[in-house]
Amino acid sequence: MDNNKERFIQFIERDKFDKNxxxxxxxxxxxxxxxxxxxxxxxxxxxxCFKLLRTKFxxxxxxxxxxxxxxGRNQEIMSExxxxxxxxxxxxKYAIISHNIDFVTFLMNEYKN
Length: 113
Fold this sequence. Notes:
mainly alpha; Serine Threonine Protein Phosphatase 5, Tetratricopeptide repeat; 7 helices; globular
């Protein structure tokens, strides 16, 4: 998923667009239930598409969005998710998987339990 806002607008403005559609791919973790477009935006760090979907459909932020934001490595998406969700051990796991020491350090310093 690239972060091409103009093409994404065309995609979501189609008559038969389903905001609840799920995408399946064996390359994603635990893909048996599929992932929403917002989840994939977080996973890929597509901040413009993420903002567009949030604004257009007034979507709630889920724990999955937060976890995937660490994999997507986009601090803007991560910050937005942190406004609505709290971190947990799974977030640390995803931060470690992302190989980003700054995210791991951030979690260690900000969210000590």
